Amino acid sequence: MSTSRLAAILLVFTITALTACGGGGGSASSSDTAPPPSATEAASVSSDASLPPSVSADFSQVAVTATSSSASQAASLVPLAPVTNYTVSPLELILNGDFSNQLYFWGLADAQTRAVPSEIRSGGKALLVNSWAGQKLSATSLQPGKSYVLTVTARKTANTGTAAVYLTFHDKNTVTYRSSRRLFTSTWNAQYTLRFTAPAYTALADVAISVSGVQAIVDTVSLKMQVPIVQTEPVVSLAGSYVPAGYGLAFNDEFTGTALNRDKWFTRFIYDGGTRDHLNDEKQRYRDNNNHIVTGGLLNLVARKVSSSDPQGMNYESGMIRSDWTTRYGYIEARVKMPGALGLWPAFWLNPDVSEAGTAVWPPEIDIFEVVNNGVEDLPNMLHTSVVQLPGIPASYLYMDPSFVSQWTYWNAPFKFSDGWHTISAEWTPTTVTTFVDGKKIMTKAYEWKDGAGQLAGPAHILLNLAVGGSWAGRHGIDDASFPQALQIDWVRAYKKLN
Questions:
Q1: Which residues contact 458 (CB under 8 A, 6 or more apart)?
Q2: In terms of domains, do 456 and 484 share one?
Q3: Which of 14, 157, 299, 352 sits in a 20 to 30 Å window from 464, CA-based?
Q4: Which of 170, 197, 226 is the C-terminal boundary of a domain?
Q5: Cβ contacts of residue 247 below 8 Å, gap of 6+?
């Protein structure tokens, strides 16, 4: 990251108190409950399964071809990080989840949301939701790092509008920082489940039913602890992986399905109640309008020009992913193919989540890669890799490849990153960050994951995004004729030390 870029970010940080760079940053706003989705947004959640006609067929190229037997063999060769086991409590964590006590323990938004006879339990009660109904969980209901299943039996009253159950976590200032949902899809009673592992801060959480343009009849709501959710899946191929010995796989996504796994990824930044869709002066807005295309074993974060009428040039939509899974330290790698058009800014980075104390801070930040192409100062063969922290905290280089330019924090590669597939990775320890390109060490920097007060920051989430324009990437224009463009991702894998 350039010195001028850092200065600009620190200025934004001073104003907002919550910002990030790597394409990161933004201030947070208060919200007691997750906002209901618009009909367009709700419909787009499951619409990324196919390639739109405007996207080049190149986006569907398969990077690694593996038979089922070779996939099985690859998976068997990857050691797994141990899962922390615990005794599963049988306690029901939702109070009056069958509405036998009418509306006790449930908050309601309007008088039309009321108890009605159950349609499937003779003599029982259900809840007719007209707009919103919710229940705040007790401060000790959920335990960080343990897994749970939220189960709702419900139906929509018509094939219109949207209805969903939300699970929402707030920081100590009641700002939403994590929200997951399950859409109700049927006018017949059906069971909807949401499985999750509780994050680092769980003292402020709630469950809510939110509807728009329709009503929902909720028969039962249940929340119980379950055995640990495994955050890994079978590894398709070890080709292009450079994980050092002594590490076990803790989290991965091989993108072998037909749509982005929304149990693993969010598509906005953690700021603004988890809805922040851009940072700094970038020209794109992150959306779910076929911006996350999963096909042929690849995830394509697709950027396209959508308008030419915005006076501030916000004429682009793009894709980003933020992991629900968080960690401190480990080895994180992704196999990617960069876009090569003028004005684009793909990035792979780590940013703090909310800490165990319920606080969100920035910095720290680890930029595993930023490949900016502004056509002059920054070109497709330059890979920026660095760390971010407040001035005055030492972060000296312990190793630099001869082609690494420390003044501007980039490695001058002998190739263009847009010409082929490359694995970019970082080994993160309590005292250092080392980045690699295709297994080649690029730099090592002394680094501690601390906030501006010198305290350990919250565990990190993983981000990959494709930004467009701004004063860095768009300094010398944006090649509109080249769109659509995509950051292609073969897989993302994160490892933890085995001992």
A1: 200, 326, 352, 353, 354, 355, 356, 359, 360, 361
A2: yes
A3: 14
A4: 226
A5: 79, 81, 330, 331, 495, 496, 497, 498
Rg (CA), the chain: 23
Strands 410-412 and 404-405: antiparallel
The rounded distance, in Å, linking the Cα atoms of 235 and 345 is 28
| Interacting residues of 449 by C-beta distance below 8 A, sequence separation 6+ | 328, 329, 352, 364, 428, 430, 456, 457, 460
Mind giving me the DSSP string for 207-241? EEEEEESS-EEEEEEEEEEESPPP-----S--TT-
pLDDT per residue as tens, the chain (499 positions): 433 333 333 333 332 333 344 443 333 332 233 333 332 333 333 333 334 344 444 444 433 333 345 555 666 678 999 988 999 999 999 999 999 999 999 999 999 999 999 999 999 999 999 999 999 999 999 999 999 999 999 999 999 999 999 999 999 999 999 999 999 999 999 999 999 999 999 999 999 999 999 999 999 999 999 999 999 999 999 999 999 999 999 999 999 999 999 999 999 999 999 999 999 999 999 999 999 999 999 999 999 999 877 777 789 999 999 999 999 999 999 999 999 999 999 999 999 999 999 998 899 999 999 999 999 999 999 999 999 876 666 679 999 999 999 999 999 999 999 999 999 999 999 999 999 999 999 999 999 999 888 889 999 999 999 999 999 999 999 999 999 999 999 999 999 999 8
Tokens of 457: 């920051």
* Contact (Cβ atoms closer than 8 angstroms) between residue 411 and residue 441: no
**What angle (nearest 5°) sits at the alpha carbon of residue 207, between those of residues 203 and 213?**
145
**Domain containing 214 — which CATH number?**
2.60.120.260
Joined tokens for residue 351: 């940013």
Do 356 and 475 lie in a common domain?
Answer: yes
Secondary-structure breakdown of the chain: helix, strand, coil percentages, each rounded to the nearest 5: 10, 40, 50
Residue 410 lies in domain: 3-31+48-83+230-497
E strand or H helix at 77: helix 68-77
Q: How far apart are CA 134 and CA 374, in angstroms?
A: 48
- pTM of this structure: 0.86
